[in-house]
Design goal:
- This protein is of the alpha/beta class.
- Among the domains are: about 230 residues, Vaccinia Virus protein VP39 (Rossmann fold, 3-Layer(aba) Sandwich), CATH 3.40.50; about 140 residues, D-Amino Acid Oxidase, subunit A, domain 2 (D-Amino Acid Oxidase, Chain A, domain 2, 2-Layer Sandwich).
- It has 17 helices and 31 strands.
- The strands form six sheets. An eight-stranded mixed sheet has the order 6-7-5-4-8-9-11-10, with helices on both faces. It has an eight-stranded mixed sheet with strand order 17-18-16-26-27-28-25-29, with helices on both faces.
- The two termini are about 50 Å apart.
Length: about 625
């Protein structure tokens, strides 16, 4: 990232075109062979990693991991995707592709480059549809119904290998020639490559430079020089010692039962994610169907509040937002409404915060942009007194309906009306006990029970969780000047749907009543009148708070208002075998849950993790323990 490029944006490649072939002006080198770039990818990377044969041997519930040192135009990725599909390995098998790129192509250049290969047109279209904006860090793209997962790291290759958790079955050592870009081929990069390799991992590279061969040999690879492609007379291929079958990874939990407690957004997303990877899941909830508690709101806004400083908290929020936007666009169906969203500069303090935010950060317009009151009014379709931050790819969701849709899968056993009161480890399994019910027995259990999660954790009450009551108000469409987009500030109001617009939510620290409160309705109306006075139709009959309908939900938050996702550990950092925690999402569950469900499914299935190490630490359970006391923790206490 240069001095001219502020976080989180990353500098994109500057391309010049020679006879239809893209060339980097920075490195003065071409992205692929002038003879036939696609055939070069197949010759060097597909054939010399024996991918066709190895793909065919991937077993049910398994995955295969390819790592690459330079994404470039994505041509190698698409060639691997095409080769994977040609072997038809099955819906419950996954090709993971991990790649780093310091200077990513912008969408227009990427589209132009890939248009040279009509036979890859369908694959290229899907990549372009999900291609992330040029912001620094890790981006997970889920393609082909989950059969293809691309972890694309925009940043330095050494940073990528330091931050990402994966072990490759095969390496594509691509990128510009060693003479043009020596940093990618230095000893530190090769050492990191070896650290991310399994026994039996193979590699191939277009270069035959002696120093590269020496470094790879010293790292433990058995290297050989082979005929190259086109004008390149020679290339290198190698392998770490091992039997070839080692590379065909079977998921360690493909046939082991998993129990998920809680069928809200978090639990439903995780259950579906694991089921699509070939796992058998029992989804448990005391309600009669999925998405009935805090996740059962009629409408929910998709937003995060990004900090002025681009720290790990902001990085997690941004990564979650971008992933959730892609996820809902792909899988939200009729329950996802991408209207766009404005975070209003609703008072002087927020206006000042947003001014500092835009001065210190550089977000691509595809992520967000600052708008004045006039532009905000045009976007919203109603007069607004302030501008704000415009998020063009956000919107709102019908979360309860989505949950019920997600849990309709043949590998998900829905165990509803089951009130869990105790988790007990016994003989390497977890027993989930409910009042008057037969125990559910599973090899692994994940607690996704929102504000009820602390009561289920099989440790003494050592965790810093809080329960916050939130009430939303259902406002009749006739009482509003309807905004066309989601408007948020201290609360939010959604566009009207089927005669109702949802506004809220109240923030009640001390009220734990599940009953609707007239006072909370009054607070929501007061918030709306202050934040968006133009939203209330003055010509309509005044709204009577006592007559409003709505819904009460209870948020689970942590001491630092950041979510929790990962293995359950005690206060000494010892991980409890076979149990995970996924809670503390607060009021941003719709934004955090898709990415964190992906991360947990990665961990549980032993596949490459979508979260970089710095953000994985951010959501770890250990940080949520209270300071130690003299009383020790015990399981099942």
């Amino acid at each position: 990232m240069t001095a001219e490029t502020r976080a989180p944006s990353i500098e994109t490649a500057v391309i010049k075109w020679h006879d239809g072939v893209p060339c980097s002006t920075r490195f003065d080198d071409i992205y692929f062979s002038r003879d036939d770039g696609l055939e070069e990818s197949r010759h060097v990377f597909i054939r010399h990693n024996q991918l066709a044969e190895r793909f065919a041997r991937v077993s049910a519930g398994g995955s295969f991991v390819i790592a690459e040192t330079g994404f470039g135009t994505g041509l190698n990725f698409l060639a691997a995707w095409q080769a994977w599909e040609a072997e038809n390995p099955g819906d419950d098998r996954c090709l993971h592709f991990v790649s780093a790129e310091r200077f990513p192509l912008d969408r227009e250049d990427l589209s132009q480059a890939l248009s040279l290969w009509p036979e890859l047109g369908d694959y290229a279209a899907r990549l372009l549809e999900h291609y992330p904006p040029p912001v620094h860090g890790a981006h997970r793209l889920v393609l082909a119904g989950g059969r293809i997962r691309l972890t694309l790291f925009f940043g330095d290759v050494l940073e990528a290998w330091r931050e990402l958790d994966f072990h490759a079955d095969a390496w594509f050592l691509d990128g510009f020639a060693p003479a043009k870009n020596p940093g990618m081929w230095e000893e530190a990069a090769i050492t990191a490559l070896r650290r991310h390799s399994k026994p039996g991992t193979t590699l191939a590279t277009f270069t035959a430079v002696g120093e590269v061969r020496r470094l790879l040999t010293n790292a433990g690879f058995n290297m050989r020089k082979l005929p190259g492609f086109g004008r390149k007379l020679e290339m290198l291929a190698g392998q770490l010692p091992a039997e070839p079958e080692v590379s065909c990874t079977k998921s360690p939990i493909a046939s082991r039962p998993i129990a998920i407690i809680g069928a809200g957004v978090a639990g439903s997303l995780l259950a579906r994610n694991l089921a699509e990877r070939g796992c058998d899941v029992t989804l448990i909830d005391k309600a009669p169907e999925a998405g009935t508690a805090a996740s059962g709101n009629y409408q929910g806004a998709l937003y995060v509040k990004l900090g002025v400083e681009f720290n790990d908290q902001a990085k997690l929020g941004l990564s979650s937002l971008l992933f959730s936007q892609r996820y809902y666009a792909q899988s939200g169906g009729e329950y996802w409404h991408p209207t766009g969203l404005i975070q209003l500069a609703y008072n002087d303090s927020e206006a000042n915060r947003q001014s500092r935010f835009t001065a210190r950060n550089d977000y691509p317009p595809a992520v967000l942009s600052a708008v004045n009151a006039s532009e905000a009014s045009r976007l919203a379709g109603i007069p607004l007194q302030s501008g704000g931050l415009w998020f063009p790819h956000s919107g709102w969701l019908e979360p309860g309906m989505l949950c019920r849709s997600l849990t309709n899968h043949p590998r998900i056993q829905r165990c509803f009306g089951f009130d869990v009161h105790r988790l007990t480890p016994c003989n390497g399994k977890w027993h989930v006990a409910g009042t008057g019910e037969q125990d559910v027995v599973a090899d692994r259990v994940v607690i996704c029970a929102g504000h009820l999660s602390p009561k289920l954790i099989p440790l003494r009450n050592e965790f810093r969780f809080r329960t916050i009551r939130g009430q939303v108000s259902h406002l009749p469409e006739s009482s509003l000047n309807k905004p066309a987009v989601v408007l948020c500030g201290p609360g939010y109001i959604n566009p009207a749907h089927q005669g109702i617009a949802l506004a809220g939510a109240s923030f009640d620290l001390h009220d734990h009543s599940p009953a609707l409160s007239t006072e909370s309705h009054r607070e929501n109306l007061s918030m709306l009148a202050s934040m968006v006075p133009e939203a209330l139709n003055v010509k309509a009959e005044p709204i009577d708070p006592a007559m409003l309908e709505g819904k009460v939900g209870f948020r689970c938050t942590t001491h630092d208002y950041q979510p929790v996702a990962g293995p359950l550990s005690d206060s000494a950092g010892r991980i409890l075998e076979g149990i995970d925690l996924f809670t503390g999402l607060g009021s941003k569950g719709l934004s955090y849950a898709p990415l964190l469900a992906e991360y947990l499914a990665d961990r549980i299935s032993g596949q490459p993790q979508c979260l970089p190490a710095s953000l994985a630490r951010r959501v770890a359970t250990l940080r949520c323990h209270r300071p130690k006391t003299s009383q020790s923790e015990t399981i099942g206490a």
